[in-house]
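Following up on my earlier thread - several people asked me to post the actual chain instead of describing it. Fair enough. Here it is, all 121 residues.
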Amino acid sequence: MNRKNNRANEVNLELARNVLQESVPKEKAFYFFRDVGQYTGKSALDLEEFYEMIDKVPLQCLEFHFLRGDFERWIREVIGDKHLASQIHSIDKSLKNKKLKAMLKRKVRRRINQLKKMLKE
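Reply from S.P.:
Thanks for posting it. Predicted structure:
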């Protein structure tokens, strides 16, 4: 049992390091669009930057990507955080505007804090 817990802790620590301390290459950044072909000029190279962009992009942009599953896909496939991707997937699809923005910020901030705590332990 101890061996299994140690392995899980090692995996969590590695995930925390990768998610918080590594930026992705520019070609794998998350590029924010208002709609198909309507780039906002904003992008994120890591989870912290992604969190900051939630406040900086138009609400229409958040709804566009959220309903397409773009956020969860990028977080799972590029950032490598299946847990956060699942958390975003679980957000009520009927949320709009400021309620969606607040929920996205809450989920992402909670995960960032959780990962930072893992690195400190």
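Residues 24-113 form one domain. That should answer part of your original question.
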